[in-house]
Design goal:
The structure holds 2 protein chains of 2 kinds.
Chain A lengths: L5 E7 L2 E7 L5 H8 L18 E4 L2 E4 L12 E3 L12 H8 L9 H14 L5 H7 L10 H17 L13
Chain B lengths: L6 E4 L3 H10 L3 E4 L5 H6 L7 E4 L9 E4 L2 E5 L4 H5 L2 H6 L1 H6 L6 H6 L2 H7 L6 H7 L3 E6 L2 E6 H4 E3 L2 E2 L6 E8 L5 E7 L6 E12 L2 E10 L6 E2 L1 H7 L6 H8 L16 H20 L2
Parallel strand pairs in B: 1-3, 2-3
Antiparallel strand pairs in B: 4-5, 5-10, 6-7, 6-10, 8-9, 11-12, 12-13, 13-14
Helix pairs in contact in B: 10-11, 11-12
The chains are: A alpha+beta, B alpha+beta.
């Protein structure tokens, strides 16, 4: 191990990773550059925009404001881990069905925060959704449909209905 | 943006953290990191060593003891927001927590970190002053307790010595009504001005009012002039108008591109009046 590097073990989307990192490495850079998980986006890099939102030990965080060493021993979920067993996550389906994105840059962060919202409360009010999405910015200003997408995802989760198969509609 | 290089040490007890602080020059404490990491990224600060205290379980948690609420310095804003105990024992703290940053920030940022950082636009200093919090600080020779009124000494500066750590904050836990009103900077969410008020009243007569103000000046302060004008008097809209009109007397307000001093000064008066009105229904 190089001097001033630190060994960390992080479970990302269910897979354990042992890495050595410089202490100054940000979690978002670790995910993107070391693990190749580029679904987590870097928007403002100042903790404002929420594009880099991931879930660490069950709590959404802005991964540009967390050091990789702080995630040692943690379970991290990123947008790449949302689809399971060939099916989209209800949140992904909600964003698809309600057109909860325009350019799509902010979408991974919005989806991860939406997962957090619905795991805290599967039936949030519009106001609760908006308050809990405060830390995510959409420069296309597509907020109405994003709120609709979260509500639709909540309904899917509450109904227990099966979600779409991954790849549905792609290239059609 | 990348911080300058630093060494990283994780402490697993307060004793270990204090030992690490003593044995490293130019070390900084890392808790939630939501003030420190932005500063590191902008290279406003370039410490040689970060001592991570976020894994010290004894610094985390909320309990009630002898009528007081005791909050570990490493307790996150989110934990305070979601605490039934806080909601019952300190309505003011329960009012502040959900107004800090956003959910992601509240998941990481800590109560003690915010107080120790003493950002002039931070939310907790106003509340700590209004509830006259007692801050427990650990050092080489044991602990000492400092009242909030003596804790903040200047912009980003407190009485905590370089080899000490803030471990616990004690606040009154008898459920005194309180409210925090905040004029948010639209981009950052920080307080342009934030006003924390507690008040007891009985049959239309005010008992004791406490008012902490943040954002307006380099250091959060108690609006004592307003408090004295209200304590013991019968509640009326006229009384609140008159008292709040003096909230900015003698203040030298901060001035920046978001809000010139005159605007902040006006906001202090308006926000104090609104907070009093909400709390005292007048």
């Amino acid at each position: 191990m190089e001097e001033n590097h630190v060994g960390i073990t992080v479970e990302v989307n269910g897979r354990p990773h042992r890495s050595t990192v410089e202490p100054r490495t940000l979690l978002v850079d670790y995910l993107r550059d070391d693990l190749g998980l580029t679904g987590t986006h870097i928007g403002c890099d100042t903790g404002q925009c929420g594009a880099c939102t991931v879930i660490v030990d069950g709590q959404s965080v802005k991964s540009c404001m967390v050091l990789a060493v702080q995630a040692d021993g943690a379970h991290v979920r990123t947008v790449e881990g949302l689809a399971q067993d060939g099916r989209y996550h209800a949140v992904q389906q909600g964003f698809w069905e309600k057109h909860g994105l325009q350019c799509g840059f902010c979408t991974p962060g919005f989806m991860m925060q939406s997962v957090q919202i619905l795991e805290d409360n599967p039936d949030p009010s519009d106001e609760e959704i908006r308050h809990a999405l405060e830390g995510n910015l959409c420069r296309c200003t597509g907020y109405q449909n994003i709120v609709e997408a979260v509500k639709a995802a909540g309904a899917t989760i509450r109904s227990g209905a099966e979600t779409m198969a991954v790849g549905t509609g792609v290239g059609a | 943006m990348h911080p300058a290089p630093f060494a990283y040490k994780a402490a697993h007890s307060v004793e270990e953290a204090l030992q690490l602080l003593r044995s490293h020059e130019d070390a900084k404490i890392l808790a939630g990191g939501h003030s420190l990491i932005p500063a590191l990224k902008l290279r406003l600060t370039q410490p040689a060593v970060l001592i991570d205290i976020s894994k010290i379980s004894s610094l985390r948690g909320i309990r009630r003891e002898n009528g007081k609420l005791i909050i570990g310095s490493g307790t996150t804003h989110r934990e305070i927001e979601q605490s039934h105990l806080v909601a019952e024992a300190s309505p003011l703290l329960a009012s502040v927590a959900p107004q800090i940053g956003d959910v992601q920030v509240r998941h990481r940022g800590t109560f003690g970190g915010s107080l120790a950082h003493a950002d002039p636009a931070g939310d907790w200093p106003a509340a700590a002053l209004a509830v006259d919090a007692e801050l427990v600080i650990a050092g080489a020779h044991g602990t000492r307790t400092v009242h909030a009124s003596e804790f903040f000494t200047g912009m980003l500066t407190t009485v905590i010595e370089p080899d000490e750590i803030l471990t616990e904050i004690k606040v009154p836990g008898e459920g005194t009504p309180g409210i925090y009103l905040k004029h948010r900077n639209a981009a950052s969410g920080y307080a342009t001005v934030g006003v924390a008020v507690t008040a007891t009243h009985d049959h239309g007569r005010i008992g004791t009012v406490t008012i902490g103000v943040t954002g307006a000046t380099p250091v959060a302060f108690r609006a004592s002039i307003v408090e004295h004008a209200l304590n013991g008097h019968a509640v009326s809209a006229h009384l609140l108008d008159e008292a709040a009109s003096h909230a900015a007397d003698g203040l030298e307000c901060l001035s920046d591109i978001h809000a010139p001093a005159a605007y902040r000064s006006q906001l202090v008066k308006v926000m104090v009046r609104r907070a009093l009105g909400k709390l005292l229904h007048a």
